[in-house]
Amino acid sequence: MTEQNTTISMPLESAPHRGHWRSIWRRFKKRRLAFTSLMIITLIYLLGIFAPVIQTHDYQETNLRKTQQGPSSENWFGTDRAGRDIYSRVVWGIQTTVIITIGTYITGGLILGISIGLVAGYFRGWIDAVIMRLGEVVSSFPDILLILLLAVTLRPAVVDFARSVEDSTGISGLVSSGIVDYLVIGIALLPLSWFGMMRLVRGQVLVLRDAEYVQAARAMGTSTPRILFRHILPNVISPVIVSVSFGLGGIALAEVILSFFGLGVQPPRPSLGVMIGDVTARTGSGSVSVLRDHPEQLLAPIIVVWLMVFGWNIIGDALNDVLNPRAR
């Protein structure tokens, strides 16, 4: 009598397959407003990425004979009070926003938020309690107040450290290139990005940690990091994508607000917030109102900021409907 071994295969993961994402993309494209918003956001980000190529003038170049001029073939968006080309400064300002938003969200929202959320939800107990209490303490402060406080407190220390590195190593340009500003703003914006993502991921992991495929992986001796990042993480991607789409707009707006108050990127590096603040700071003077005579100086950066924030919100709403099975 021959014995026959039967192998029972148990699913160790239920990560969304490629056809699943193609189906999501097809449903998303049917939402015309969201798809148009995605195209506009992509165009704006490409303008920022390729700013050195598509600029028409050096953003620091001044021409006092052409101050406060309207749009023309030479200066598409006109010039400011120093005779600088507004179009070139806008595309470089977009690059500043792109660098800060993407860098901050990758480090804070994705790497830090997802990793801590996986650990807190999977291990629970005192680890979960410590992480949650710490996050609640941070989130109890008003967002913009905490961001302003961190930016003001960190800038002098980071600038002094960067200058000491320049003096000791002979490397120049750490402060003038804007790297220090990016670092300060990125750290200041971390509280706005990590806790919300961590709490979202933690809630999903609390449900998935007891799923059958996770229990099967544990029974087979699979390591904890592999369970977290190979079996659990793929199944929380959908809410993470929705959170990222909303969060990028908020981070972009926060960066503009910081620069508006003079706590973000410092001149001569262009920033959309600095451009808005430079115009509005002069509207109360006794001279002719800039807003009345040269609205393009204010409209150009404001429209770009509005398109980014509005576009990400529309994309987030559409993704929430597309990725939510109950909404289909």
What can you tell me about this protein's structure?
By secondary structure, the protein is mainly α. α7 packs antiparallel against α10 and α11 crosses α13. The N terminus is likely disordered. It has a domain of 198 residues: MetI-like fold (Orthogonal Bundle).
Q: Which class best fits the helix and strand makeup?
A: mainly alpha
| Number of DSSP strand runs | 0
Number of helices: 13
Strand portion, in percent?
under 5%
| Uncertain stretches of 5 or more adjacent residues | 1-14
Q: Based on the coordinates given, report the CATH architecture of the domain at 100-275 and 306-327.
A: Orthogonal Bundle
Shape: globular
Largest sheet: none
CATH class of the domain at 100-275 and 306-327: Mainly Alpha
What is the CATH topology assignment of the domain at 100-275 and 306-327?
MetI-like fold
Helix fraction, binned, reads 55-70%
Run of helices and strands:
HHHHHHHHHHHHH
